[in-house]
Each structure stands twice: as structure tokens, then as C-alpha cells.
Amino acid sequence: MTFRIAGISFDHMHMGDLLRMVYEHPHAEIAALYDPNRAKMQDAIDTFNVPEDRVFTDLDACLAAGPYDMALLCVATAEHACVTERLAPHDMHIFVEKPFAASADDARRMITAMKGTGRQLAINWPLRWVESHVTAKRLIDDGLIGELREVHFYNGNRGPLWHGADKQEVTAQEVEHLKPDAWWYKKASGGGALLDYLGYGATLGTWYMNGKSPIEVTCTVDEAPEIEVDEHAIAVLRYKNGLSRMETRWGTFTDPWKYQPQPTCGFTFIGSDGTILSPDYATHLSVQTRACPEIHQVAVDALTPGERNGIEYMLSCLARGEPVGGPLDPALCLTAQRIVDTAAQSALEKRTLKLLP
Q: What is this structure's pTM?
């Protein structure tokens, strides 16, 4: 079959990346594009040759022109819950670009909205499709470093306005021009580096930990007077078997997909019998084990067909009639959202908190 896919909102610049994956998929088509601002869609309309009768600035008109098999949701984080509730009755799967939601309560609303529809909700975390991090998961599950005790995460980029679809760069002058009106820098819209990136570490960290939750969380953020959201956050998660540190940063010296900054963006794993360093986009992992304590390099695995990106994986699951798993699974993502919520509240109260329900 050919999956008819609707792109809903261009608030998140990853919409362009997702549409390219749809465009290049042999069994998918861009069936509709919606955003209230036509100009935000124009690059995608031109790039993917989307016919005018598939372009909408009114959501009701877009939904009436269906049916669609799946919606790609790229609205501002604070709108994820209400838009999911609006889409859920229209008999389509919903593929949400990270983060999951602005809060665990909103995440639960999204899960509830999809319950009983017979359709799936999936949350896409692009780092899930990075070969080094997928290889690290295999090595951990294979027992290479024994019991996993610590997951350390440092990640970010120069900032959300420095690049658009396909990682097209903009100038510093353009960034400063866009900042005042950008939802990324508005607290009420779910902006800030903590909400943007801590979900990556918490979600993939929960995946690596096979679903384990921390007992408590301590977090601090920068407090720049000229903006209302954070651009730098450091969270410490206390698990039964150890501490994990997760740091998020808008303002890295370089973007990691082009030049790895220092500190290196990625994950470090500490196990009872070894360690693994998994930088973003690396061709090799740095590994230590009891048998070979010297740091040595392990080549990353190539991603297998059907799991090379979020769209390919989601459509493969749908074609087989299987639920999505791992970091796309809403149940796992809800645990991670609770970690994010607790970190945000900890930073606000400036104290350690038990993991919020």
C-alpha cells in the first residue's frame, strides 16, 4: 500500500527532514501540508512538488480532505496535547516529533486521546537513528560492559534558530532577528534547552536502562536575564545503582552533525565490567572492558533496512501490524517525560526532588 501522510504544522524545523523521508520512501506520499502561515510551508511545497490542492492554512479543511494514514506533528511543544486530541478522532496514526510534551500530564492526555482508536502514537527522537547510539544499545544488551550503572549525556547545538530543514544554516544576524518571535524562546510555548534536549537523554537513557526509573532528580539551569527560558541545564539522576548526569546546551561551539564540539556531544556508559563512549555521528565507539582495559575502537553497525530513520521504522511497523518500540513507545517516553518534569521543577525550586508521578 501507499501510506498517505499529512504534515501538520511547521513550528519545528524537523518537519522538512521528515517530509524528505516521506518523499523518498517508496510506499509513502505527502498527501497534505498544513500550517496557518503559508510562507512557512513554501520551501517544502517547492522542494517536494506538493500540488496546491494538498496545501492548507485551515486545519479543518485539511482534515476534511482526508483520509490520511498518518499525521506528522510538528507544532510547538505546548500544543502537542491539544492538537493530538484534535487529530485523534480522524482515524490516523500520529507521529510526534520530539519532545513528547510540555508535561507528563499533557503526555497522558495524548496517550488517552489515542486509546481505543486502533491507531498508534509514536514519538520520534532523531538520536535513535544515529548508528553509534544504536550500536551502543546492542553492546550493552549483549552484556559487553556488564550491568549498566550510569548513563551520562551531553548534547545540544548552537541553538534552534541556527539551522532549518536539511540542516541549512542561517547567519548570526538572522538568528537575532528571529529570536523575539520564536516559540523556542517562550516559556508558555514549551521553549528552552531543557525541554528541547533533556528528553533525548532521559528517553534514550530509559531505553538503555531497560525501563528503569531514577529515584530522584537534581537540576540547575542558567538564568540569563535577557531571555525567559534556559539555554543550559544540568541534571543529576539518582538510580538505585548509581548516579547519571544529563547536560543540555544551546550554544555549543559548533553543531555536532558538522564538527563535534568540546565537550563531545553524545553518551558515555559505565557498567560493572566496562565503559563505552558513543559520540553523536561517530564511526567508532571507544570501549573498555575487564578483558581489555585499554581503550579500543569498535566500528558502529550499519542501520538495517526498515530502521534507518523514524519514518521508515514507523511505516515498517504499520505494514507488519506491530506496535512501535524503544524510544518511540509512548509508555517509555512517559517515564522520560516524568524525569524532564522533575528536572524542571527541581531547577525552579533549587532543590532535589523525588521523581514526580
A: 0.95
